[in-house]
Amino acid sequence: MDKAKLIAEIKSKKSFLCVGLDTDMDLIPKHLLDTEDPIFEFNKAIIDATKDFCVAYKPNIAFYECHGPKGWESLKKTLDYIPKDKFTIADAKRGDIGNTSRYYAKTFFEYMDFDAVTIAPYMGEDSITPFLEYKDKWVIVLALTSNKGALDFQFMTDMNGEKLYERVLKKTAKWGTPENLMYVVGATRAESIKTVRKIVPNHFFLVPGFGAQGGSLIDTAQYGWNDDCGLLVNSSRGILYASNGEDFAQKAGEKAQEIQKQMEVILVEKGFI
Ligand SMILES: O=c1ccn([C@@H]2O[C@H](COP(=O)(O)O)[C@@H](O)[C@H]2O)c(=O)[nH]1
Q1: Using H for helix, E for strand and C for coil, what is the string for 1-54?
Q2: Tens-place pLDDT, residues 217-271
C-alpha cells in the first residue's frame, strides 16, 4: 500500500488505530481451544469485530512462529483474511547481513504479502536496504522503543551529546524516504516523541505502548502529529483480551470503537477530516 492510500484510509475510517494480533494461546477463550485452528478462529472473530474501527493490523510474528509450521499456517490464513484495504505489518524485528536480509524480505513481502516489516537497525545499512527494494512496501525501523530496556542503549550519548536513537533516525532517514520508511516510537516516551518528530518531520510513526503499557494517546498525537497525521497507534492486549469469555469479539470491537472515537476527536481538532 502506498502512502496516499494509507492517508485516504485514515480519513475514511476516521481512525489511525492499528490492532495488534498478538494471539496468545494462554489468553484466548477456552472454548476456542477445541477448534482445528484456535489462533485463526480467534483472529477471524477479532478482525470481523474491529475492521470498521482501524486502518492496520500488526501480527507479532513471535506468537505464530513459536507453534512451528502450524503457527505459520495460522499467520498466512490470518493475513489472507484481513480486508485488502488494511495496512498490514509483520512485527518481526528482523535485520541481518545483506544477503540474509534479502531472504527475510522475500519471506514477508513475497511468501507473505505484508505491506511492512519491523526491522532492528543495529546491523546497519545493508541489513535494511534489501527490504527497501520492494515497490509499495515499507520498512519500519525501531527508533525509540516503548520498553524499559530502551534505556539501556537508546539514550546513550556520544561526545557531542547526541543520543543513539537520534543518530539512528538521522542515518536511516538517508537510506529510504517517507514513502517507504517508518519508525517505531513508543507511546511511553511522550517527552521524546517531540524530538523524534523534529528529526524526521515527514515520516509515519508506528506507536506501540498505548493501552496495556500505559502510553497516552493525547500526548502521542500532540507530539507526534504531522500534516499527514503521521501516526499508526497500536493496541494489542488492550483490545484482544478485553474479555476472555464467549463475548470476546464483541468486547474487542467495543474497545476498538472506543479508541476510534477518541482518534476521530483528534482528527477533527487537527482539521484533518
Ligand atoms: O517498542 C516496541 C516495539 C514493539 N512493540 C510490540 O507492540 C505490541 C504492543 O502490545 P500491547 O499488548 O499493546 O502492549 C507487541 O507486539 C510488542 O512486541 C512494543 O510494545 N514496543
Answers
A1: CCHHHHHHHHHHHCCCEEEEECCCCCCCCHHHHHCCCHHHHHHHHHHHHHCCCC
A2: 999 999 999 999 999 999 999 999 999 999 999 999 999 999 999 999 999 999 9
What residue's CA is closest to ligand 1, atom 16? 60
Closest ligand 1 atom number to CA of residue 240: 12
Q: Is 60 in the pocket of ligand 1 (CB under 6 A)?
A: yes
208 CB near ligand 1 (under 6 Å): yes
- CB atoms near residue 5 (< 10 Å): 13
Radius of gyration of the chain (CA): 18
pTM over 0.95: yes
For ligand 1, atom 5, which residue shows the shortest CA distance? Answer: 208
- In this structure, the chain runs to a length of 273
Question: Residues 151, 188: contact at Cβ < 8 Å?
Answer: no
Under a CB-based contact definition with an 8 Å cutoff, are residues 169 and 127 in contact? Answer: no
Q: Is 84 exposed, middle or buried (0-12, 13-18, 19+ CB in 10 A)?
A: exposed
Domains, the chain, with CATH or none: 3-269 (3.20.20.70)
Q: Which residues are catalytic?
A: 93
| 211 CA closest ligand 1 atom index | 13
Three cell numbers written together for 47? 478482525
Residue from 28, 60, 205 to probe ligand 1 pocket by mutation (most atoms less than 8 Å from CB): 60
Tens digits of per-residue pLDDT, 144-199? Answer: 999 999 999 999 999 999 999 999 999 999 999 999 999 999 999 888 999 999 99
ipTM: 0.99
